[in-house]
Amino acid sequence: MSRIIDGNKMNIVGDNVRKYRIMQKMSQQKLSDKLELMGVYVCRGSVSRIEDKSRTVTDIELYALAKVLNVNIDDLIEK
Prior knowledge:
Shape: globular
Structural class: mainly alpha
Strand content: under 5%
């Protein structure tokens, strides 16, 4: 089973992760650090790849991203 959405985009949350991260004046490294405190290990480079949609996002990562960014999961889903 393929995990690729349209051949180029590996996730549908990248734009919103970037938007909410920037709104909170949080660096990619700070986001990575906060995720690590939750036990979800996503390095700064992986945050960048999530935001440019070249990396998939697991359900656990999606949950943690929403918690760290203080938004609902639905807010991260591209509309």
